[in-house]
Amino acid sequence: MIFNLFLTFARIGAFTFGGGYSMIPLFNREIIDRYGWLTSAEFLDIIATAEMTPGPISINTATFVGYKLAGFWGSVAATLGIVLPAFIAISLLTVVLEKIHDLPAAQNGIKGMRPAVTAMIITAALSLAPKSILRPLDLIIFCATILLSWRELLNPIIVLFASGLISLLYGLF
Hints:
Mean pLDDT: 86
Helix content: over 70%
Radius of gyration: 18 Å
Number of helices: 7
Low-confidence stretches: none
Order of helices and strands: HHHHHHH
Oligomer: single chain
Largest sheet: none
Distance between the termini: 43 Å
């Protein structure tokens, strides 16, 4: 299990560009659909927790999933798996980009990746929405979070904490 965790997260880390949010569809496909390691609800809980804790969401998610499945060593394997491909790629790319960063072709290539990364993030949101917006209150929280995040009216941590508190209070009454 531990080696399989490492390989799974290394594959995700090696073939995803654009940061943690663009990895969510691959996490979903591998962890839920392919291996059945977690349910959709468990995965959403991990994503929510990973978002609230300090650090990159991809690393936090890998660490939480690894721990849930195989304890401490599972978290180490999953975390190393998600980090190593990026570390190796960035180390190599830094050397190359230092030499070519002023070339128009390199600039155009990077600009071309931006819309794809945006699409991957939107895909992640669309894949998670039906599993997380189950009550009218969830839709209200969803819309309010989009508005508050888009306009940067509140710190994201405050938005997450307030959302959890509102849902908690809603469940009590």
